[in-house]
Structure formats: C-alpha cells, structure tokens
Amino acid sequence: LGLDMEELEEIEEDAGLGNGGLGRLAACFLDSMATLGLAAYGYGIRYEYGIFNQKIRDGWQVEEADDWLRHGNPWEKARPEYMLPVHFYGRVEHSPTGAKWVDTQVVLALPYDTPVPGYMNNTVNTMRLWSARAPNDFNLRDFNVGDYIQAVLDRNLAENISRVLYPNDNFFEGKELRLKQEYFVVAATLQDIIRRFKASKFGSTDSVRTVFDSFPDQVAIQLNDTHPAMAIPELMRIFVDIEKLPWNKAWDITKRTFAYTNHTVLPEALERWPVDLVEKLLPRHLQIIYEINQRHLDHIASLFPNDVDRLRRMSLIEEGGTKRINMAHLCIVGSHAVNGVAKIHSEIVKTQVFEDFAALEPDKFQNKTNGITPRRWLLLCNPGLAELIAEKIGEDYVRDLSQLTKLHQFVDDDLFIREVAKVKQENKVKFALYLEKEYKVKINPSSMFDVHVKRIHEYKRQLMNCLHIITMYNRIRRDPATLFVPRTVIIGGKAAPGYHMAKMIIKLINAVGHVVNNDPVVGSKLKVIFLENYRVSLAEKVIPATDLSEQISTAGTEASGTGNMKFMLNGALTIGTMDGANVEMAEEAGEENLFIFGMRVEDVTELDKEGYNAQKYYDQLPELKQAIDQIKSGFFSPKEPDLFKDVVNMLFHHDRFKVFADYEAYVKCQEKVSELYLNSKAWTKMVIRNIAAAGKFSSDRTIKEYARDIWHVEPSDLKIPPPNEPRDAVEDKTPNGTAA
Q: Which residues make beta-bridge pairs with 223?
C-alpha cells in the first residue's frame, strides 16, 4: 500500500492500562504463558482512560487525560454474549437456608477479548478486560414516576467504574471508587471461571449441584498483588451462599485455588481498607472476612495460648483509630502459596514484613524472580542486536534465553566486539535524532547515554542522580580544561498527580537541566534531558540506545525492578545498589561486571538503629554541601530562590531513603564508570559479559517456575499445527491439559 510500517507504529496509541512495573510484568507474563503453550487467561479492567499523558510545562508535570480509545482499538473484540452482573451495596438476610445478599445495585460487566499470540507456536491465548455498563432499567425500576432524562444520565454513575486508572504506583489511596473497581474485576472474573468450569467435563453435576472437588486441580488463580484480594471472600460467598458447600470444604478449595504475589514492602503501599467502607459496599463480604479471621485467630490461639500481641499482629483486622482490613494478611491466609519477586525481596517478606506468618507456615513462602519477554525487549525493540546475536549462536535463544551464555566464547572476538559497539552506536544516533527533533537540544551521540527511567518516587532516588549531575556541572566549571567524559543524562518517568515531592523532583531536574544545557562553559560535555511522557513505546526507543542504566534505590526498597533487566539485555552497563534483582544480575554476570555501590540492606538497618543524621554528610562532603547550597540559594531557580525549600528540608530532616548516606559512594562509582567508558573495547567486553548473563531474566523462566511450583501445570513446547492443516481427529478430542 506504499505505507511505512514504522510510521504506522508511531500512530498507534499505547494501551497504558497499568502504572509501572506491576502492569508491565503482567504483559510480559501473558506473552510468556502463550509462548509456553499454557492455557492461561489474563483478566483486568478495560479502562476508558489509562495512565495520564504527561506534559512538561515550564519544568512542571501537567497531566492530560489518556483518551487511548479515541480512534478505536482494532485488537479487541467485545463479547456481549458473556456479559455478567456485579452487585454492590444492599444488605444481608440470614435464614435457616443460609445468608442472602439482597437489595443490591447491579452493574453489568461487558468483556472485551484481546488475542495474545505465543511466539511462532500457533498458540493464541486471551486477555479479557471488563467494561462497566448500566443495566437498561438502571434507576427506572423504582416506580417513582421520577425524571426519565435524569435516570438515563445517571447511568454514568454505574459506568464510571471502568472510566479511569488510579495513577498511583506504590501508594494506597483508599477511595470508594477504587474498591468498586477491585471488586468489579474480581466478581466478573470468578463468575467467568466458574461458568467455564461448569461447562467442562470436570464440572460434573451430582443430580442438581456441581461437584467442586476437582476445582483446584482445574483452576489456578494468581493474585497480582493485593488489588484482587476480594476474590478470596467472593469465591467463599459463591461456594457457601450460592453453591451451598459447607464452610470447611469451601475454604479448603479456595485456599488450594489461590496464590498471592507480593510486589512491595513499602508500608504506604499496603492496602488497608476501612471496615465501614467495606460494610457499606460489600456487606456480605465483610461478614465472610470476619469469619475467616475468627477461625484464623482461633487457630493461632491454639498454637500460642495467651500471646495476645501475636493475635493482634496476625489479625486480618487492624484495630486502633478506624478499623481496617489488612488485605495482605487476607491474601496470605487465603492462599496456598505466597511469593516475592526477587531473592532479596522474598527474604525480606519472610523475615521482616510477614515474619509471623512465615514462622507458622514456612513452606508457603517462595521466591519467583521477575523476568521480561525477550520478544518485545530484544527482538522487537533492538533488531540490530538480536540479529547480531543470532548470527553467532542461532535463533533458538529467543525461546530459550539461557542460550545467551554461548556468547561468552566471543568476549575476546575483536570483530564481534566492534559489531556490538557499532549496533549500540547506531541505536544512539537514531535516538539522538529523536531527541533533537522533540527537545531542540543538540546531542553528542558519542557521549555516554546515562539513563534513569522509571516512576518518580523518593525511594528510587532520582534526587541522588540529580545531585550527581550538579556535582559534574560544578567540576566542569571549576576546571573547564580538565578531561571530562561527556555525558547525556536522560531522566524520565511519571509522578502520581497527588505526590507533591515527586512533582518537585521533576521540577528540580528540569531547573538543573535548564542551567546546565545553557552554560557555554559546559558546551557538549554535559546535557540533561527530562524525557516527557515515559511509557512502553518510549522505553522501546531509549533502552536500546542506553550506555549506563541507573538502578539506585535504597537497598531493601525495590522489590525487583524489571527495567534493570531490559537494559542488561540491550547492552547497557548497570550502576546500582544491592537491591531487588540487581543482586541476582551481579550474581549472574559477576559483581565485577556491574558498578555496584552503597549500603547493603544490613547497613541500612544498622544506620536506622543508630539514627540517620543527614547533617553529618553535608558537613563532611564539600561537593555535597556545594550542590545543596546551590539548590537552597536559588542558583537553579533565580526567580523563586526558595522554590526547592521543601526538597532540601526533606533531605535534611525526613529522608527515609538516605540519599546523603550513599552520595559519596555513588559519585566515586560514577568516576569508575567514566574511566571505563574511555576504553571503548574494555567497556564493550563488559557489555558482552552482561548480555551473556541475562538469560535468567526471561519471563519464560519465571513462568516455568510459577507453573511447576505453584500452578502445577506443565508447559508444552509442542507447536500446535496451524488452522489450515488438518489435525488428527482423535487428538482433537483430547482435553488441552489443565487451565492456569
């Protein structure tokens, strides 16, 4: 048709239906499950408006609605024939036959299916996203001769449930609409799963009633953090109230069905729903949660008589102030497996965050280190590198990333070293052109591309990077003649709209960039770019062009991270703390092939014991003092000298993430980075060692571990014949294995 594919790809909107790592991880998992031939479904909400579009105006973040469906979405298919009712509010009636939830408000859940193709195996799975619809008699049932026009306009109230994604990453906002969203996706999905189970040969009916004994053998449900935790009381409600199973039977089946993945240890991120809100919105579910808690606490009391503090710590209900439901505790009690997402994180989960639960059932707790799909994060975004690797080791590595270890034999191959460097340089030139077009800044493509892209959060310490930029700037100005390894520092990411400090951090980075980029003394030695509206499609551009990946969270705060893995696979070197999956990356590649610096978890704990004193570092480190004084005095904001006083005040008096404590080690480590960058060949050899060690971080490996250790299903690498080839008739009737 004479159209350019790349131009077409630019036009398509991202489906930005998640916030950060957690949503992107689910997308990688769907790709891997299909590629491994697992009969798996991904369920979620079809938000009309996804994560906001970020504009930078005068250095500040401004949010715009993400109207991603404006031009339609060709990949989805509405399935009105599978529409399901979801109930809210109402009250509970008790009778000899059991509890009944009555006088509820009904919202309909309309499914939209998106195909998820496996890689070259003719498997196509389904992602099913629910959209909220008002029933046609909405607000017209009540025989009050009411206002017909108003009743129709009020349909929006029901349909608002799937209107917009809450834009918080690693932060809990206890709003009624958010709880409605969480229950909406759970209630629709469980009805769908049970409908499918009953239609299969396993849902055999005993005269009238379905026999659910085989349910956990046919169905595994993985809870992606606590957001779908209401699935536990909801499945109990279906079994006990509707299917009339005895409680103990229902509970046994429920526990064997669910498994829970924890994604964060930050206390402000843990979901703790007020009891009053749950009682209003989901009265029967609150009763069921109370019953689960009662039996749970009775069990604890029998094991630890008179230990009231243990009962308080382990309760699903937190007393004191407003009573709240601890959703993580509900997930642990209601699941047969609990996992963290990197070795260090899973250790912290076991020994600190949920230590009482792990002491009780140590075998329940596992690790499943996160991964990324090499299809999107190498083949699709970096075809040059993917092709170069295939020339050396064949194409099979795409489905078995562990084969990348074969690259070790080429680490001293001069031609291969040059080719790897050349692919990187081509990617950098291409991205430099993109930056110059979008940001009107002249980029030096031979400078080191130092990239820090992720959600803006204090724990991720973009501020520490910013202090390093100021330090480099001051060194250049102090001695313009000295050798300085040129850098283009690229920082990008969205701040939650209500997160004041994160928004100030964005403004500070832009203010510093404005001064640095316009100082003639600096010239092309140092450029600072804040990458606007960071999202998957932009990550696909910046990651292949990166030389240095910044993974600098305070040790013990980043559960895993997955961007770190994408950079490693795409030929960047990592500067990072011993946190999250960085630990395992260093283990795989050898610590000498990463730039590891700063406090370990033990050091952070030790510093907390003695008390973190930011002033001490400020007094002892002249370059840190200079940088902070410049921020404080208005050097970067001459029109508003005290613009950043909140930031400086935080750094001195309530910095939970101890930026000053790691500053010196970080700057020294950055000097080692610059030194190595001067030796292009040594740098590229280290890059090759990193790529060769990246195999563990395929989401295929992660999913195989979930399948074997938690879901108890076997991945199949059988290639299903394409639809145009006739299959063996007998084979056709064989059930497709167990559903995950």
A: 260
> What 3-state DSSP class applies to 493?
coil
Q: What is the pLDDT of residue 79?
A: 98
Indicate if 460 belongs to the active site. yes
For residue 3, give the amino acid letter: L
Q: Which of 285, 329, 454, 527 is catalytic?
A: 454
Model confidence at 616: pLDDT above 90: yes
Q: Is the pLDDT confidence value at 239 over 70? A: yes
The whole-number average pLDDT for the span 336-358 is: 98
| Cα dihedral: 181, 182, 185, 191 (round 10) | -130
Query: Catalytic: 454?
Result: yes
DSSP state at residue 709: I
The Cα–Cα gap between 583 and 343 comes to 8
Q: Is 457 a catalytic residue?
A: no
Residue 244 annotated to the active site: no
Give CA torsion, residues 22, 26, 29, 35, to 10 deg: -150
Q: How far apart are CA 37 and CA 717, in angstroms?
A: 6
Q: How far apart are CA 234 and CA 248, in angstroms?
A: 15
Q: Tokens in use for 91?
A: 């009250």
> Domains along the chain?
5-367 (3.40.50.2000), 383-697 (3.40.50.2000)
What secondary structure, in 3-state letters, does 185-239 show? HHHHHHHHHHHHHHHCCCCCEECCEECCCCHHHHCCEEEECCCCCCHHHHHHHHH
Q: Is 255 a catalytic residue?
A: no
Look up 455 and say whether it is catalytic: yes
Q: Which of 460, 468, 494, 685 is catalytic?
A: 460
Among left, alpha and beta (phi > 0; psi -120 to 50; other), residue 293 is alpha
Asked if 68 contacts 15 with a C-beta cutoff of 8 angstroms, the reply is yes
- Do the beta carbons of residue 131 and residue 185 sit within 8 Å? no
Furthest-apart CA atoms within the chain: distance in Å: 90
Residue 703 CA to residue 476 CA, distance in Å, equals 48
Once rounded to an integer, what is the mean pLDDT over residues 160-171? 95
Give pLDDT tens digits for 529-583. Answer: 999 999 999 999 999 999 999 999 999 999 999 999 999 999 999 999 999 999 9
3-state secondary structure of 16: coil
Of 336, 399, 452, 455, which residue is the catalytic one? 455
Transcribe 336-399 into DSSP letters. SEEEESSHHHHHHIIIIITHHHHHH-GGGEEE----B-HIIIIIIT-HHHHHHHHHHH-SGGGT
Question: Tokens in use for 229?
Answer: 């935790």
* Helices first, then strands: H and E counts in the chain: 30, 24
